[in-house]
Amino acid sequence: MPYPIIPFSRCGRRRCLVEAECTVSGGYAKIPYFVEDRSNDAELIRLLFQDTLLTTGMGGPLSEQPDPSSLHRVLDIGCGPGGWILEAADRYHHMSLTGIDISWRMIEYARAQAQSRGLTDGVEFLVMDALHPLKFPDASFDLVNLRLGSSFLLVTDWPRLLDELLRVTRPGGIVRVTDYVTIQSTSPAYNRIIKMGLCALYRSGHSLTEEQTGVTHELDRLLSERGCKPVQTRDATLEFIAGTVGGQHLYEDILTQDLGYVFGHSFVADKQAL
Ligand SMILES: C[S@@+](CC[C@H](N)C(=O)[O-])C[C@H]1O[C@@H](n2cnc3c(N)ncnc32)[C@H](O)[C@@H]1O
């Protein structure tokens, strides 16, 4: 088959977050879910923290790749404020990197960051809705990255998006998918928040189960069914310990989220108890 695939990493101790918004007849129909206002600066800052936690915790943007020098054209789907792309641009000067996100605010910020860090050469950020056909020709990229796609994809969106990712990936290229598997904490308040989050994800159609496996355990099958060969998986366990920088970032990540309207007062009370 034409497409070898996937260092597919699993992030432990992470929550899945964020919003869902879809374009309908040229306008926006908001699906009330998690972060309501995606152009909110607090959300942008939270995503910056989250990016650092994940990229550092996983050993770098492409730490599992045996030969990043063979990857020239790279696409990041739902790139947020651009942290993953900019980290890759810093490390791999030969790459041409494109980040897409539905949010103007995220893209605007990512472009400004690229500018201020002198990383404009070979780096571009575009506003694009990944739930619509991607505006790239077939086989445009050597590697396509999707991290925390479950934050905005309904379970029913995955097959179509994976088809689209395969279309824009060149034969022999790589589709790289990272999502959460399990989240455990010694904090009872945090565990209650996670439980409510998983329940909300399930009830809103973002997860196949209320258990902590989300959609991750299904991705292997979904990719194999599409002819991806080989499908490779890698577990990355991320630890956030109170009193460390990572622990503080996670704490701020939770506090920054304005999720009370989804989970109700109990969630807000638990946030205060953290
Ligand atoms: C949880 S963040 C993940 C950001 C980044 N991938 C990371 O791992 O750091 C989800 C991102 O997806 C974006 N997003 C949500 N719906 C989208 C869509 N339909 N198309 C493209 N991006 C979308 C959001 O604006 C947000 O920046």
Name a few traits of the molecule.
274 residues, alpha/beta, Rossmann fold, seven-stranded parallel sheet, two-stranded antiparallel ribbon, 9 helices, 9 strands, globular, disordered N terminus, binds S-adenosylmethionine
Give a topology summary.
Blueprint: E1 7-11, E2 20-24, E3 27-31, H1 41-57, E4 73-77, H2 83-91, E5 96-101, H3 104-116, E6 123-127, E7 141-147, H4 158-168, E8 169-180, H5 188-203, H6 216-225, E9 232-236, H7 245-256, H8 260-263, H9 265-273
Parallel strand pairs: 1-8, 1-9, 4-5, 4-7, 5-6, 7-8
Antiparallel strand pairs: 2-3
Helix pairs in contact: 1-7, 5-9
The structure holds S-adenosylmethionine.
S-adenosylmethionine (SAM) binds at residues 17-19, 38, 47, 50-51, 54, 78-80, 83-84, 101-103, 106, 129-131, 147-148, 151-152.
